[in-house]
Amino acid sequence: MVSLAEPPAVMKNQDLLGSLLKRVSRSFYLTLKVVPSDVRRPIGLAYLFARAADTIADTTLIGRADRLKYLELFREAIREGKTGDLLAIKEVLAERQQVAAERELLTRLDEGFSILHSLGPSDQAMIRGVVLTLTEGMVMDLATFPGENEGRLVALDTRADLDRYTYYVAGCVGEFWTEIHMAHRPSLAGWDRETMRRRGVRFGKGLQMTNVLRDLPKDLRIGRCYLPRQELEALGLQPADLLDPTAVVKVKPLLRSLLALTLDHYQEGWAYTLQIPRREVQMRLACIWPLFIGLKTLALLDRSPNLLDPGVTIKTPRGAVYGIMARSLAMIGSDVALDRYYQRLRRSVPVSPLHVSSPPVGERGG
């Protein structure tokens, strides 16, 4: 509870990282609520900046060139601290937002920068780094996909492009997550930084690949095909062919291959999670929940009658999400029990990963 004696600036900051963040953060707020309190502030602020940039990039009420211009102004403010550029973003973009929470977020960006400047130099550098990388992915999206509808559908060229995209929009978050926790949680002092950074990247890529597969028909209809063009052509397909749901028969080998890649990323994410010391309960839960919920989603994707059908909605039911949260909380102190449940969820997706690289449970750190 906020004390009435606290300064107005503190109360505003708590509202920015509390009420407003909750309204713009979708499902991420559940994860943020459970992370340790000493990393919640920098992680929440980084998320708010990324969400503001995403709002700028997705504002279809202005042209693509203008979106790129204002996104670059935002990147410059993050890079150099030139908050004067935020005025133009407020004046041109904020009032055009139809979602009230997104409009408020843009109008309060200067408060976010005040919080940023109140943090230590190391935290500031990590936040700037991850936001600049995330926004580089947004620039890539705007530059790669010129249209807003299926009439100007464009695909990424190669699987390497897809890998780079998933790094920009999610893999870099795994790096940031690793670095910010290692900076604040002494119990992680024994971690091999490079190994855990690499696993963190794979963790993030796996979650983003889940989004790519789940959102495929929706993205196609806004002009974006994240399935590599070269691999589509090898199957005798063009991106526009995927607008016909019956094309799922021909594209299924590629979808299965990408599902296997996603599971491979998850395997690295699971190895990452079980290296978190058992006493770091909050950090463990913050990693377990998206992994387990993601596996539930992958199982739905695998059983979906047609991943290309825009009329098919793939979403893990809320009851299943709450069940996962309750069950994992009950097992949080046991690597064996958690691994048994992970393997059970993994078996519900009968696709072989590309390779398995997790160590046996007995080799995990305590």
The parts where pLDDT drops under 50 for at least 5 residues are 1-11, 356-366
Number of domains: 2
Number of helices: 16
Number of strands: 2
Major beta sheet summary:
2 strands, parallel
The multimeric state of the shown protein is: single chain
**Average pLDDT, to the nearest integer?**
88
| CATH topology label of the largest domain | Farnesyl Diphosphate Synthase
Question: What's the CATH superfamily of the largest domain, by name?
Answer: Farnesyl Diphosphate Synthase
- Overall CATH class of the largest domain: Mainly Alpha
CATH architecture classification of the largest domain: Orthogonal Bundle
Portion of residues within helices: 55-70%
Q: List the strand order in the largest sheet.
A: 1-2
Give the amount of beta strand, in percent.
Answer: under 5%
Distance between the termini: 34 Å
Radius of gyration: 21 Å
| Class derived from helix and strand content | mainly alpha
Descriptive notes:
This protein is mostly helical and 366 residues long. It folds into two domains: 7-119, no CATH class; 145-355, Farnesyl Diphosphate Synthase (Orthogonal Bundle), CATH 1.10.600. The protein has helices at 8-24, 28-34, 37-57, 64-80, 86-93, 100-107, 109-118, 121-144, 159-184, 193-214, 216-220, 229-234, 248-273, 281-303, 318-331, 335-347, and strands at residues 154-155, 224-225. Strands 1-2 form a two-stranded parallel ribbon. Mean pLDDT is 88; it is low at 1-11 and 356-366.
